[in-house]
Amino acid sequence: MTTGRGAGRYSDHDVEHYDRPRRSTRPRTKERPSYDDAVSARVVTVDRGRFTLLVGEGAGATKVMAMKARPLGRKGVVVGDRVRVVGDTSGADGSLARIVEVQERSTTLRRTADDDDPVERVIVANAEQLVVVTALADPEPQPRLIDRALVAAYDAGMAPLLCLTKADLADPETLLSTYRSLGVPWVVTRRGGDLAEVRERLSDRTSVLVGSSGVGKSTLVNALVPTAGREVGIVNAVTGRGRHTSTSAYMLALPGGGWIVDTPGIRSFGLAHVQPEHLIEAFPDLDEMTEDCPRGCTHGSDEPECGLDEAVAAEQADPERVASFRRLLAARSVSDY
After folding, report:
1. How many folded domains does the chain comprise?
2. CATH number of the domain bearing residue 286
3. 206-238 residue pLDDT tens
């Protein structure tokens, strides 16, 4: 019998020497399930890792609860995403489906918590229009917040729309004069007023409503979608700020066609992700005038030899429009509204 430190654990006569289980030799595969049976759906709200989806279109759509499949990893799923799901899509109580694919987004509305925060947060996907809702009074308008929302819209490739509420309390012309040179369309509403123009602007489009708390977003949503049941808040008489009534983004189908996304009231809109060259592209007439700008020109008011200044001097550009664009450009780094 062999002994000592160099001896093997088993001798030739040990049963374990022959019966020791071998490692599995089954080859691994990189193939993934095809999910041929997956159905298309739209994400309407997100709540702590659970997703509410609509499967189907129109009145026949089914509301389905789902989780994200593990193979998606850290890939984000947000309101407005078009996804493919498998599992129980009946919508019955207690049923749960799995999101297995997020389809390519046509637009992505982003913001950062602060201007020096490198982490982007996607608010909504696949929206065509950003509706900036602001009250003309109670609370007072916040032009810098409006500017920042407009910058985010232009950067995302979305059409902007100003929705001025509470016109029964203040004249909208004072605020409109600030944005008229930018060519931003607008609608004006008042308590109990006709919403025909608003409905026309929203019809057959997917629109995101953003604005501070207390400006009337939830009131507007309830008027547009009577079954929405969004909670309505009030404005604090001391601080002049509204109370957050919406805690998460929620997508709703409009009775006449189209979708609206109601978002929680915002008090900051970080724009660390926005680059000047992307912003100028939203204004083709001004962009054309910057072709001969020096390399690295941001097109701001303090840039030497900027093509915008030369165009204004040659009376080829509207000075007010250039000034308004530069105000939006400056809004990227001015957040004390």
Report:
1. 3
2. 1.10.40
3. 999 999 989 999 899 999 999 887 665 444 443
pLDDT at 237: 42
**pLDDT tens digits, 98-157:** 999 999 999 999 876 555 555 668 889 999 999 999 999 999 999 999 999 999 999 999
In this structure, what CATH number is given to the domain that contains residue 116? Answer: 3.40.50.300
Residue 99 CA to residue 69 CA, distance in Å, equals 6
Supply the mean pLDDT for the chain.
85
Is there a single domain that holds both residue 96 and residue 114?
A: no
The greatest distance separating any two alpha carbons of the chain, rounded to the nearest whole angstrom, comes to 105
Same domain, 252 and 128: yes
Half-sphere exposure of 214 (CA within 13 A, CB side): 17
Instruction: Print the domain residue range for 97.
Output: 39-102
State the DSSP string of 255-279.
TTS-EEEE----S--B-TT--HHHH
Query: Looking up tokens 């030899």, which residue turns up?
Result: 305
pTM over 0.70: yes
Yes or no: say if 306 and 315 are a contact pair by the CB < 8 Å rule.
Answer: no
| Residue 108 three-state SS | strand
Q: Are residues 207 and 95 in the same domain?
A: no
